[in-house]
Specification:
There is one protein chain. The chain is 83% helix and 0% strand. It is elongated. The protein has one domain. The protein is mostly helical. Helix 1 packs antiparallel against helix 2. It contains two helices and no strands. The protein starts with a helix and ends with a helix.
């Protein structure tokens, strides 16, 4: 696992925490959807960048 993949996975997990917070605050659904897409892209890209 290199540094870039680690950073992308950590940022994705940070976004997941933000999503949970936004759901509890009853923020607009479009904002939650946009953040969910960003989190998914970060996590998937981090996993694809890993050198196994």
């Amino acid at each position: 696992m290199n540094g870039l993949s680690t950073v992308l996975i950590v940022v994705g997990l940070f976004f997941v925490g933000g999503i949970i917070s936004f759901v509890k605050q009853k923020m607009p659904t479009s904002l939650i959807t946009l953040m969910s897409l960003g989190a998914a892209l970060c996590i998937v890209t981090g996993l694809l960048q890993m050198e196994v």
